[in-house]
Amino acid sequence: MPERCELLNKCGFFLNFKGNSEVVKQGWIRTFCESKEKSEKCKRKEIRRTTGKPPKDNMAPTGKLL
Q: Regarding predicted confidence, which is higher, 36 or 48?
């Protein structure tokens, strides 16, 4: 099993939207959260690194606001 994103257990987007049909349909969790390598392209992770704070929970890994 591939390694998942290390921020998964404290990611507001993942925790709040993992059961949301739109999120599942878009494949964001599969694409960004379930692969440590691909999670490096996550805009949420980029913002956290830049500002030291997590982005708003409604921001998808692509940067799109839901």
A: 48
Structure tokens at 25: 């349909």
Q: What is the pTM of this model?
A: 0.83
Q: Which of 41, 45, 31 is nearest to 2 (CA)?
A: 31
Query: What residues contact residue 28 under an 8 Å CB cut-off, 6+ apart?
Result: 60, 61, 62
Per-position DSSP letters for 2-64, written without gaps between them? PPPPTTGGG-HHHHHHTT-HHHHHHTHIIIIIS-HHHHTT-HHHHHHHHHSSPPPTTB-TTS-
Return the domain boundaries, the chain: 8-51
